[in-house]
Write a structure and sequence with these properties.
The chain is mostly helical. It has one domain. 74% of the residues lie in helices and 6% in strands. It has helices at residues 2-30, 40-50, 80-83, 88-105, 109-137, 144-180, 186-225; strands at 57-61, 68-70, 75-79. It has a three-stranded mixed β-sheet. Strand 2 and strand 3 form a beta hairpin. The longest helix is centred in the C-terminal third of the chain and has 40 residues, at 186-225. Keywords: Membrane, Transmembrane, Transmembrane helix.
Amino acid sequence: MAGIYLIGILFMGLSMWVSWRLKSKFKKYSEIPLQSGYTGREIAQMMLADNGIHDVKVISVAGRLTDHYNPADKTVNLSEYVYEARSAAAAAVAAHECGHAVQHAKAYSFLKFRSAMVPALSIASRYMQWIILIGILMLQTTPIPLTIGVALFGLTTIFSFVTLPVEFDASKRALAWISSNNIVTQQELAMSKDALKWAALTYVVAALGSLATLLYYVSLLMGRRD
């Protein structure tokens, strides 16, 4: 069990550092006024309209960095720090979330795959940790519970890696749109790129942490068989 704790501590520390960098970058770029003067809400509405999307609502939600796109009710949810803000950070985040809406409208393959995994993932995440714990305790008796737990954990790991191209593609669409439509200056575009880079790194760290943990559980199974 010491191995899993070491992995957990390592990736927890890395995740905290990336999260701190993301928050500091967002705060820094939120304080720099956007020369075009558009708010996050206006940028989102323009990007949706420009892509022929008229059935998605842009709404405000409480919190910081709580921005997300909900494909179930077709809403772009912008945090209060983005919705009415006029900054490079707000432009980047608003356009990124609209990037997901564009993916949905265009049936982007990785988003479809990710969405199809959600029902199974919600069930797996509910029981997975208990099954893995039971599996580890019973490992000397039978490998079956841990094998099931590893399979469920493998599903969450796949989900983490499928999320990566979804996030990177949304950022790519966002940056291309705000640049080509003169929403940001070249200096502001660099800030937007930097903010989205650190946001993407949070998903990269989560995926690598999940993979490292999965490999540890697999090594337990392999060790038992040896």
